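Dear all,

This email documents one entry for the complex benchmark we are building for the journal club exercise. For each entry we list the sequence lines for every component of the assembly. Then comes the predicted three-dimensional structure of the complex as a token string, followed by one or two observations. Please use this as the template for your own entries, and keep the labels exactly as they appear.
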Amino acid sequence: MTRETGPPGGDPENSRSEFSNAPARGRNRIPVRLLLQFSWRNLWRHRRRNGILLSAIAVAVAGVLLLNTLLRGMQYDMMNTAIDNLTGHVKVLAPGYLDDPGIERGFDTPPDWQQVLDPDAVEGWAARIRVPAVIMSERETRGIQLVGIDPEQESISFLHTAAIEGERLTGRGDRRLVIGQRLADDLATLPGRRLVLVTQGADGRTREAGFRIAGIYRAEMSLVESAFVFTGRDALQDLLGTGDVTEISVRLADAPREAETMAALATAFEDLDVLSWRQLEPQAATMVAFADTSIYIYFLIVMGALVFGLVNTLVTAVMERIRELGMLRALGMRPRSVVAQVVTESSLIMATGVAIGIAVAGGVFSLVADGIDLTAFDDSLASFGMRPIFVPVVEATDVVLVAVMSLALGLVASFYPARRAVKIKPLEALQRR
Amino acid sequence: MATLVGLVVAATAPAGEGPAEVTGESLLEGALDLTRGMSSYTELTMTIHRPTWEREMAISAWTRGREDALIRFTAPPKSAGVATLKRGDRMWTYAPRIGREFSLPSSMMSQQWEGSDFSYNDLSRTDKYLRHYDVNIAHTEERDGHTIYTLELIPHDDAPVVWGKETLVLRDDYVILAQTFYDQGLEPLKRMQTLEIGELGGRTIPVAMRMSPVDEDDRWTEIRYLRADFDADVEDGMFTTFALRGGR
């Protein structure tokens, strides 16, 4: 029989006496404490083997958790980028605007429409004109999105915090442009210079006019810098010959109240489409949903592989203890108790592994919590709608989920070894040398 | 005006009929307004020169008034049939290879016209000078019995003009000698020069002109008039997309 090595503080005398008392307490059960003690000691009999298994579980759990925070970070980032980039959580648009944007799909805002919004649920809103336009400098021509804004309302978009070289727009009547750094580079132009904008007016005729550049903004993505050109909303309405706007963008203070806000907006704008950012930015929404799924996929792959290691270890442990288990059975231990022992062992290993894994993940996380700089890959990331700084995000539910799923897998893994242990026949086992 | 159409049109101004009081506007206006209602037919060659290649194309052009023009390539075979129609503010181009004409989107107006150093804008901007620029005479001199005016054209602040400034050198008989386009830092960017002045179709006109970027010597586009028929009888059907396709 294998040498018994108790854990620190274990007391062999005590356990033996409890076992001898067991039948007196009830023939079908051994006390939980005794069961734990048995399992605990069995684990300590093979420190190296169980240590390796434990490390494998800890590393896997830590890995899954860290990957998880990165995926969540990516998810939040894509969502926020999508919302910051003039989308907002909810947008009111004329039907057909998305397929064919233009001022002919503008709309009139009824007075006091904003009363339908619950001030607690909404962080802010902005009414804008957004039309495709062509912009020209002496040297180059580019296609852009021309956005007429009221600068005071733009606290809800990236423009509010963007660094600006030169001046910001002073009001909605400001007939100057704020363009992105990338576009300014492409056009080889500077603040104070004139650019020519060509776009389609409300009557369908081409409008062209020169506009001075007030300032040049920097955005986190160069894609944004080359796409959006801002000017005062009233000034743009003058050029287009209209009093309409093409969109109202609403940023929520409280994301879960999206549906409620959308319903309220739908009553204020009966003939218009009220769309959530998921409908407006389907690519970002798909990526966000994909992050949710991929967290489970990664978990199942990594932990699934580990389960085989766990099964293998447990089966080995059972085979080594055939004589011992046979003896216990002969002395009257019920099959149920044998199963309980194997399951407990498996769960102990898993629980310890998960605990260490979470601790390791926490340690690594604190090192990268400020974000991982991926500026070198700026352009390729931008095409996925991501910023170059990658900030991992911990969600408590994810950690709990990983822990619970790991323990559940530990239970599943103990099924086969337990079955083997139950099948041991006391007589055969005792005859083995 | 430093444009093909503009040149064709401006060249139809009767020579020697000087304005009463010479101002920048009157010179410009004179060159443009005296051609109102006139029609013309011209044949010319356009040579595009690049550091590694050069090619010459033959063009026929019809104009009516200041607004309408049809320009058709007749040679080489690769380009023959390619045509551009201008009516008022709008332009169409026809590509025989795909057998379709299409309206030029505003985004293409500043692109090069058929690979030359002229842009579509250069072709279409004939009459906008008076509206969008402050014109003044920067310099006057006498040369070879002509008064040579150097006009300085400064675009208005909200003008749909990318240039910071243009200068135009013009003879008192409205023959344009040179035009220079400046960026908004007032550095010259591209320049058009008249290489040869001659008699054609009964008028004194610039018969050869060259447009080139200022900083590149080995890159230019030259236009040379071979035949000009001013006050030609051009039928109205010439300025339709049907005619653009080559139908008569």
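Observations: Confidence is low (pLDDT under 50) at residues 6-19 of chain B. The helical segments of chain B are 4-10, 24-33, 120-124, 129-132, 241-244.
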